[in-house]
């Protein structure tokens, strides 16, 4: 059966269209099971009816003509129950529905299984037999279920292809075809899709030796030189759209092309007798494996950059001609895997949106998109990319959705959102220098999360009061070795000077487990629960001590440094870290540096830490909740995995209860507590956190004006009543709806992201 399944899937995957795929399915399944009839009924989203789309054994003339209501007949029963139904005598069943045009009155035995993809019923796969004495056995039922599960994704992909092409299952015009991913950069864009394909495919490069090593080395040097020139040209083209600091992202590419980085390793492989293309493939794939093993999503995304560089180098080695694309006035760039270099190919002022099948909100593309203000959706599974070329697209970067071939009403709906967002941003600029204070004079500090100087510049222009989280992984990430103390000191000084005298909270190096650097690989059975964060740096004090020393020296004359320890799960980790920090402090003072002892805090991002708040607070100066990781650990959900992203919810009752407990326990011992994460940057979430008692909220710079506007317009008493009400609820979706309703009633409906409820309201309006 396994070989039959494998052959069947391969045939279906190579089918030209959905109809050919369905014809293959019914033909091969009928033959494999030795049954007289095999049919596929697909659920048409437009009519919510099951349509006979393919059959082997029934009358062919019935295909496309016979349809059943959602719960009609045995087919409807299989779909509504979402489980197999196996009958020896189908006509005697009370739900049996007879269609004379199919000729199925001859067949009595019936086995139907649902075709389900991501919880959505796509259709029903049916086999039938003439003899009433035959009952399909458990093995046959299991085979049909397996076929259904294997083919669901293929059918979903083909169905989507047909829908994007403008036709529904019934052949009627299809509009407003939607796909869901994860938000990459906020905003809404309307434009024409331009699909970009990778320049070359490393996976198909064969392994072979070379007889002329010097010639292969020269070919590779020329390829490196050409790619460097390409990247420098792209960076120059984007110079007018980005601040100088934001162009630092391209330095990552150029550093990777340095002689001591990737090219040096490729050259070594060539000298060992491997031809240039094969050597490049080996090194690039090794780099990709290292990055993809990492736990930190920001660092994982570096694999995209390495892969892109590899493809560009290979393209030059193969002397492949780059595709010359035509970019319309309003370009929505679409690719399996977008890279920063692809953005630079679009002429100035013509890029309005980005769509990437792979990637997350931590990718370089997402960072650049936020810096450039380009709405972005990433992590779109089962989307037929090639069908989006030339199609009109709506990109909803708030909710992580795209719409293909929008109707006039949907287009007008999203255009109004674009106009309102532009007007809102202009109106909030006056708040930049005003304090974040409620109407009853409760003060909250608004901070920002940063990793690059681009974040700092934008943060200052939005009125941030300091940095709540500086990710120190960046200097380590762009090197092919651990950065020296002096190199780290220069990076940290930039951040500290930019915000002085406001506080800058620097998280110590957060690597390890499956978050390894290319030059510090770690392989583990269960990396999420393994050797990572503070566990690594305490096991390697030579790394920890150098980093802390660089931080302290960088703070001289500014004294706005705060140090934060990541992934704390035990009191002993805090005590050991403090011992090392105090040791370095005294050593640096003895060297003649005039510095103050910085405040030291811990990140609360592991559930165990939630229950040790008082003990932790007794030993440090402050606490900061990493709400994104804490939510993921509490719910066991990777929020950047589009297949389970719908289970990740910051408003989950368990998350809110944990956050309440953290704030209460911290204040009992008189220590300030802040929070950094997406919940802090959500206007409704910020209100709940302020009501819980959080002293500071750290967020993306773009979220800061809206959060400040909302907090300045309400009383803390009002927010505390809202918190009290939602803590009685047991559904994250109901809690979110209640918070949104409260904001709407308070006059902040324009701040709410255009979510599913808005789209549903639009649909209801269109149908009325």
Automatic annotation (TrEMBL):
<keyword id="KW-0808">Transferase</keyword>
<dbReference type="InterPro" id="IPR036637">
    <property type="entry name" value="Phosphohistidine_dom_sf"/>
</dbReference>
<dbReference type="Pfam" id="PF05524">
    <property type="entry name" value="PEP-utilisers_N"/>
</dbReference>
<feature type="coiled-coil region">
    <location>
        <begin position="210"/>
        <end position="237"/>
    </location>
</feature>
<dbReference type="InterPro" id="IPR008731">
    <property type="entry name" value="PTS_EIN"/>
</dbReference>
<dbReference type="InterPro" id="IPR029016">
    <property type="entry name" value="GAF-like_dom_sf"/>
</dbReference>
<dbReference type="Pfam" id="PF00391">
    <property type="entry name" value="PEP-utilizers"/>
</dbReference>
<dbReference type="InterPro" id="IPR003018">
    <property type="entry name" value="GAF"/>
</dbReference>
<keyword id="KW-0460">Magnesium</keyword>
<keyword id="KW-0418">Kinase</keyword>
<keyword id="KW-0175">Coiled coil</keyword>
<keyword id="KW-0963">Cytoplasm</keyword>
<dbReference type="InterPro" id="IPR008279">
    <property type="entry name" value="PEP-util_enz_mobile_dom"/>
</dbReference>
<dbReference type="InterPro" id="IPR000121">
    <property type="entry name" value="PEP_util_C"/>
</dbReference>
<keyword id="KW-0813">Transport</keyword>
<dbReference type="GO" id="GO:0008965">
    <property type="term" value="F:phosphoenolpyruvate-protein phosphotransferase activity"/>
</dbReference>
<dbReference type="InterPro" id="IPR036618">
    <property type="entry name" value="PtsI_HPr-bd_sf"/>
</dbReference>
<dbReference type="InterPro" id="IPR015813">
    <property type="entry name" value="Pyrv/PenolPyrv_kinase-like_dom"/>
</dbReference>
<dbReference type="InterPro" id="IPR040442">
    <property type="entry name" value="Pyrv_kinase-like_dom_sf"/>
</dbReference>
<dbReference type="InterPro" id="IPR050499">
    <property type="entry name" value="PEP-utilizing_PTS_enzyme"/>
</dbReference>
<protein>
    <recommendedName>
        <fullName>phosphoenolpyruvate--protein phosphotransferase</fullName>
        <ecNumber>2.7.3.9</ecNumber>
    </recommendedName>
</protein>
<feature type="domain" description="GAF">
    <location>
        <begin position="17"/>
        <end position="165"/>
    </location>
</feature>
<dbReference type="Pfam" id="PF01590">
    <property type="entry name" value="GAF"/>
</dbReference>
<comment type="similarity">
    <text>Belongs to the PEP-utilizing enzyme family.</text>
</comment>
<keyword id="KW-0598">Phosphotransferase system</keyword>
<dbReference type="InterPro" id="IPR006318">
    <property type="entry name" value="PTS_EI-like"/>
</dbReference>
<keyword id="KW-0762">Sugar transport</keyword>
<dbReference type="InterPro" id="IPR023151">
    <property type="entry name" value="PEP_util_CS"/>
</dbReference>
<dbReference type="Pfam" id="PF02896">
    <property type="entry name" value="PEP-utilizers_C"/>
</dbReference>
<keyword id="KW-0479">Metal-binding</keyword>
């Amino acid at each position: 059966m396994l070989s039959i399944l494998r052959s069947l899937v391969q045939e279906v995957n190579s089918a030209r269209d959905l109809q050919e795929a369905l014809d293959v399915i019914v033909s091969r399944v009928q033959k494999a099971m030795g049954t007289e009839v095999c049919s596929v009924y697909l659920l048409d989203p437009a009519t919510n009816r099951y349509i006979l789309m393919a059959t082997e054994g029934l009358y062919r003339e019935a295909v496309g003509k016979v349809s059943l209501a959602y719960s009609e007949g045995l087919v409807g029963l299989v779909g509504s129950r979402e489980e197999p139904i196996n009958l020896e005598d189908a006509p005697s069943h009370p739900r049996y529905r007879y269609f004379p045009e199919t000729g199925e009155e001859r067949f009595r035995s019936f086995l139907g299984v649902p075709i389900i993809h991501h919880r959505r019923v796509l259709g029903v796969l049916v086999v039938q037999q003439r003899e009433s004495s035959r009952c399909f056995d458990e093995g046959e039922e299991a085979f049909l279920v397996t076929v259904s599960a294997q083919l669901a994704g293929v059918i979903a992909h083909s169905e989507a292809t047909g829908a994007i092409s403008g036709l529904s299952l019934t052949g009627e015009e299809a509009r407003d075809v939607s796909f869901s991913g994860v938000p990459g950069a906020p905003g809404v864009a309307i434009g024409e899709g331009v699909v970009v394909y990778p320049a070359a495919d490393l996976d198909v490069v064969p392994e072979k030796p070379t007889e002329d090593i010097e010639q292969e080395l020269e070919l590779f040097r020329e390829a490196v030189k050409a790619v460097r020139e390409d990247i420098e040209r792209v960076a120059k083209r984007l110079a007018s759209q980005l601040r100088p600091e934001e162009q630092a992202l391209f330095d990552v590419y150029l550093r990777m092309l340095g002689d001591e980085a990737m090219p040096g390793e490729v050259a070594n492989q060539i000298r060992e007798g491997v031809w240039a293309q094969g050597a490049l493939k080996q090194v690039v794939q090794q780099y990709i494996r290292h990055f993809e093993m990492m736990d930190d999503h920001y660092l994982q995304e570096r694999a995209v950059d390495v892969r892109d560089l590899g493809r560009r180098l290979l393209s030059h080695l193969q002397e492949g001609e780059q595709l010359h694309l035509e970019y319309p006035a309003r370009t929505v760039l679409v690719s399996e895997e977008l890279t920063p270099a692809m953005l630079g190919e679009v002429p100035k002022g013509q890029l309005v949106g980005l769509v990437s099948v792979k990637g997350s909100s931590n990718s370089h593309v997402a960072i650049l998109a936020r810096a450039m203000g380009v709405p972005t959706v990433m992590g779109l599974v089962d989307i037929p990319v090639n069908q989006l070329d030339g199609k009109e697209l709506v990109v909803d970067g708030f909710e992580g959705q795209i719409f293909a071939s929008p109707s006039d009403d949907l287009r007008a709906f999203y255009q109004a959102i674009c106009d309102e967002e532009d007007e809102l941003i202009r109106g909030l600029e006056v708040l930049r220098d005003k304090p974040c204070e409620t109407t009853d004079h409760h003060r909250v500090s608004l901070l920002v999360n940063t990793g690059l100087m681009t974040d700092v510049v934008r943060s200052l222009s939005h009125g941030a009061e300091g940095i709540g989280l500086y990710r120190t992984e960046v200097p380590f990430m762009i090197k092919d070795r651990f950065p020296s103390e002096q190199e780290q000191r220069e990076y940290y000084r930039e951040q500290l000077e930019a915000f002085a005298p406001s506080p800058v909270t620097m998280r110590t190096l957060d690597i390890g487990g499956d978050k390894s650097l290319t030059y510090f690989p770690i392989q583990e059975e269960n990396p999420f629960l393994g050797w990572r964060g503070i566990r690594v740096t305490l096991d390697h004090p030579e790394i920890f001590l150098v980093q802390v020393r660089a931080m302290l020296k960088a703070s001289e004359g500014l004294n706005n440094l705060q140090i934060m320890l990541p992934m704390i799960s035990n009191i002993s980790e805090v005590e050991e870290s403090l011992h090392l920090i105090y040791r370095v402090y005294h050593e640096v003072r003895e060297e003649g540096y005039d510095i103050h002892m910085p405040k030291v805090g811990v990140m609360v991002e592991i559930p165990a830490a939630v229950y040790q708040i008082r003990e932790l607070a007794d030993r440090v100066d402050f606490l900061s909740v990493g709400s994104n990781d804490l939510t993921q650990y509490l719910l066991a959900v990777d929020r950047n995995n589009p297949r389970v992203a719908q289970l990740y919810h910051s408003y989950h009752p368990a998350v809110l209860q944990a956050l309440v407990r953290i704030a209460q326990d911290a204040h009992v011992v008189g220590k300030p507590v802040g929070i950094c994460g997406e919940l802090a940057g959500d206007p409704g979430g910020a209100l709940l956190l302020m009501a819980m008692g959080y002293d500071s909220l750290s967020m993306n710079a773009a979220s800061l004006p809206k959060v400040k506007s909302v907090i300045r317009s309400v009383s803390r008493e009002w927010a505390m009543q809202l918190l009290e009400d939602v803590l009685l609820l047991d559904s994250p979706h109901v809690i979110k709806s209640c918070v949104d309703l409260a904001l709407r009633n308070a006059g902040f409906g324009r701040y709410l992201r255009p979510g599913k409820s808005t789209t549903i309201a639009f649909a209801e309006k269109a149908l009325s």
